[in-house]
Each structure stands twice: as C-alpha cells, then as structure tokens.
Design a protein that fits this description.
alpha/beta, Rossmann fold, 8 strands
Length: 274
C-alpha cells in the first residue's frame, strides 16, 4: 500500500441544507473525508469508494478499512468515505459521496486512477447511499469555479451489500428517519425509495443479501434488482439462505454468505477490473 491518509472532501463551509440545531447536537462526522488506500501504480488502476453502514447514525468499522484492504489485494485502489450522518440530513451524505467520486476523477493523474473504472460499495445504509450515487449520477457543472465540481459523479460499477433501498413497508424506518428527519416531504421520500429512481444510465451492479436478514428485509435487494431488470441494466444478485444483518466481509461467519466476496471478485474479473 502506497499511502494511507485522510483527504478532506470540502474546503471551507460544508454544503447541505441541515445542520445541528441546538448546542447539544453533535455532528458525528464534523469534516467528511476520504481515507486513502492507494497502491503503487505505473498505469491507472480501478478505484472503489467504500461506504460503511450504520443506519445514517454512524459508521461500522468492520465495513470500512477491511474492505479497502481486500480491494487492494485484488489490485484495485480504494478509499473509505467518511460521509456525514445524523444530525446532518439529506442531501448532506449524498453530496459527500458524490464529492468523493468527483475528487477521485479530479486527482486521477496524481492517484493513478482509471476514470472509466470508478466503483462504489456500500453496506446497509451505506448501501442506500451507494445506490443513491448510482441512481443520481450527473456530469458535473462545467461552469463551476471549483475544478472538482466540474467532474462527473457517475460511477461505473456498484456493489450493494444488504442495502437499505425502500421507504415502504419492507424498508428500514430508522435509516430513513436519520436521513430525512421526523416529517419528510412525501415526494422526497418517494424519490429516495430507490427502486423508484433507477434509470438505464445506472451502472452494472453486484447485490447480495441474506433471505432471513433480521434488520433490513431481503425485499430491499429484490426490489432494486427488479428495477434494474426493468431498464435492462446488468446485475448479479446473490441471496444467501442465512446470515444476520451486518456481517461485513463474513470472515467469521460459518454459513455460505461468507462466500459473497468470492462471488464479487469473480464479477469484478468478468468486468475486467480485478
């Protein structure tokens, strides 16, 4: 590994329309940043942005650095995105994750990143954020004075691990409350129920879940896969019979779900990334 250090996503005031409202509030992520896991590279390599889960209330450590190191073992660069969570509300986490994509493109020459092979991975609520980046990619603002803002936020591959997707009965109410507050706008909630906002511009996806997930029902992944199928976007869907929510890489889990990393590696090789 060439380097491991933090890069702040924003300089100056943080964008986003919600801030802590009282002196007692504390933003769990004061300054969103990237932790770099960059490999030595003479030629550009693919890069994966890792978004740990935590219900939009925090970040699960076992869903962060271990994944970046695993991607390094496959020959890919990786960064862990320390995005903002509650009491920061939407769109703050999405702005942070999109900024991570833009920054990787802006610094591609320095980091030796292949700008056509930038992927994103997320667990649980981090999976919701990763899928949001995939759904709402844009081409950047060509007129922006900030060179990073001129870059595209579109990703070229998505890995969604037991993701929160739906704001409906099969969703995870706690994640949406942390993301949208107590009384969200119904239209915004519908838009962020991500099975409703998939388009043919979405990237190829690898999705996995357990059939008996005890926190985020498997219906979330099934709904997202169905939405991808409806617009003819390629995906690889893996439903394992048993695993509790939040197993991360699953190294200590005895069931078949621990094999998701092997399946994901095979998928990445099929894409020509690993």
């Amino acid at each position: 590994m060439k380097s491991k250090d933090n890069v702040e996503l924003w300089s100056g005031e943080l964008p986003g329309n919600c801030r802590p409202q009282t002196a007692g509030d504390h933003a769990a992520v004061e300054r969103p940043s990237l932790v770099k896991f960059l490999l030595p590279a003479e030629q550009p390599r693919p890069l994966i942005i890792v978004l740990p889960g935590g219900g939009y209330a925090g970040h699960a450590p076992h869903e962060a650095d271990p994944l970046a190191k695993w991607f390094n073992g496959l020959g890919l660069h990786a960064v862990v995105c320390r995005y903002r969570v509650h009491p920061w509300l939407h769109p703050s986490p999405l702005l942070d994750a999109q900024r991570a994509v833009r920054l990787a493109r802006a610094l591609a020459a320095e980091w030796r990143v292949d700008t056509q092979r930038i992927g994103i991975l997320g667990f649980s609520a981090g999976g919701h954020l990763a899928c949001s980046v995939a759904n709402f990619g844009d081409d950047g603002d060509a007129a922006a004075s900030d060179p990073v803002a001129r870059q595209s936020s579109r990703v070229n591959a998505l890995v969604a691990c037991y993701p929160v997707i739906s704001a409906g009965p099969s969703g995870h109410a706690g994640s949406f409350k942390n993301l949208l507050g107590d009384n969200p706008d119904p239209a915004l909630k519908q838009r962020l129920s991500l099975e409703n906002s998939v388009t043919s511009a979405n990237p190829p996806a690898f999705i996995w879940h357990s059939a008996d997930d005890n926190a985020v029902p498997v219906a979330n992944s099934l709904l997202y896969a169905q939405a991808l199928a409806a617009v003819a976007v390629s995906f690889s869907l893996h439903i394992y019979p048993h695993a509790p929510h939040g197993i991360g890489m699953g190294r200590d889990f005895p069931g078949t779900a621990r094999g998701w990393t092997l399946a994901c590696e095979a998928w990445l090789r099929e894409l020509g990334w690993a």
